[in-house]
Amino acid sequence: MTPAPAPPSPLYEEVPETESFADMFEAQVKDGGAPGRRGVRLGEKVAGTIFQLGADTAFVSLDGSAKSEAMIELRELKDDEGILRFGVGDRLEAHVVEMGARGILLSRALAKGNASFAMLAEARASGMPVEGMVLSVNKGGVEVAIGDTRAFCPISQLDIRFVEKPDQFIGEKLQFRVTEVRDRNVVLSRRSLLEDEQRRLATETRKNLAVGKTVKGKVSGVRDFGVFVDLGGVEGMVPVSELSYTRVGHPSDVVKQGDEVEVEILRMEEGQPNSPDKAKQKERITLSLRSRQEDPFKKALEEIKEGDRLQGKVVRLQPFGAFVELRPGVDGLVHISALSDRRIAHPRDAVKEGEVIWVSVEKIDPNDKRIGLRRISEEEAQRPPEERAAQQAKAAAAPREPAAPRPTVGAVVTGKVDRLEPYGVFLAFPGGKGLIPASETGTDRGTDMRKHFSIGQELKVAIIDIDASGKIRLSIPGAIRAEERAEVEAWQKTQQPQGAGKKGFGTFADLLSKLGK
């Protein structure tokens, strides 16, 4: 037996766009029907499927054993550009904001017209978002208008990250969650909504993340140590060293907050909630913006060859040498032994950062991206290649002078005054340069160093200290004491027994006792 067809429902029939939902509701009541609203209450979050689109309203079949129909305004289903993003058959979630003669009215966010304190209280209980306009910035937060109701959102709840300039939101319509309704005071949180959305996006985003993969994101924060990038609910960081091949003064010189960027994932480290190190408790994703740029070293290899003489700027000093920028993003190293004709204790004794010098390219290692340099004079740089080759051959054949010994604490050296300062005397000596503090010059306190010493004056000093950075402290009285100790030690050696059976003069007391006999 064929079952009888279900009776037609006015809600499922083609509806003229001039017919309102209220008219449909009244017609259904006249026919003896009644919308099944059992279990549906004001402020409740419901789910359903769109089955009809009108001129400015969408009709929704709600889920549940007691079948119900509701409506929602089309403007709530459009994006910021006014494009409708939902159609017949699509599912949505919304909150019940009205139940009456017009039927069940849904809203995805509580907005103007529905913002009574009773509805705000319902919104707090159900978690329904509310829409409000930021009016002004107050101490500790912002004032928000939800219809005719004034509410407050603390700065800490305005965004996921701390907002340094909250006035940027003034005049904007944003969605919030009601966290408190008490004594006509309404407190809001936008952060909790953003965190929920971030968690939802993060679940989808993580499915497509992998080390070595290139992804797109938006700059969410710029700090001194790097740049934070939102990959879609998941945040990664680009360290300063991975921002560019060229030297970066500050990350804000490269990108600004809100910029769209393409980055490569270098590392992914899962969070360790039980770790005592707070930095390791959260997930860490390290990104690189530099890897998406052209490597300037490859281009430099086409232009720079071994034997070339170039000008470069000293950009960094290390105890082992000076780094010289030859091209933007391309540095070479002048080893400390190739910085000066004399032995120096530290590169700063020969060059300073920012100084432009002439160098000769001695070696290029394309695999390790290293360029070895040697400092040369401007005169040598201007010589013709053949004359320079002859000069190098002559220098190689000439006997080399023995290198000055490396400075050591306790050694006595002789040098010449290089600079005079109120706090001491700088002395250059074979193998290095150091400072004789005023207290170690052997002069009275308050003595004017310029009146007591002169540039080029030769002094004998003792090395009394060399710190971790290579700075050398010298002492004139220390040299005198060292020489005295050396004389005493030499005299004591003459008093030692010379050969088997021989005796020295002994002590001065022994000598007197012999004379007394």
Global mean pLDDT? 80
Distance between the termini: 154 Å
Sequence of strands across the biggest β-sheet:
1-2-3-5-4
Total of helices: 10
Query: What ranges have pLDDT less than 50 throughout 5 or more consecutive residues?
Result: 1-22, 24-37
In total, the number of strands is 25
Helix content range of the residues, please?
Answer: 10-25%
- Radius of gyration computed on alpha carbons: 42 Å
- The geometry reads as elongated
Largest sheet properties: 5 strands, mixed, barrel
Structural category is alpha+beta
* Strand composition percent: 35-45%
Could you walk me through the main structural features you see in this protein, from its secondary elements to its overall organization?
By secondary structure, the protein is of the alpha+beta class. Helix content is about 20%, strand content about 35%. The protein contains ten helices and 25 strands. The protein is elongated, with a radius of gyration of 42 Å. About 25% of the residues are buried. Mean pLDDT is about 80; it is low at about 1-20 and about 25-35.
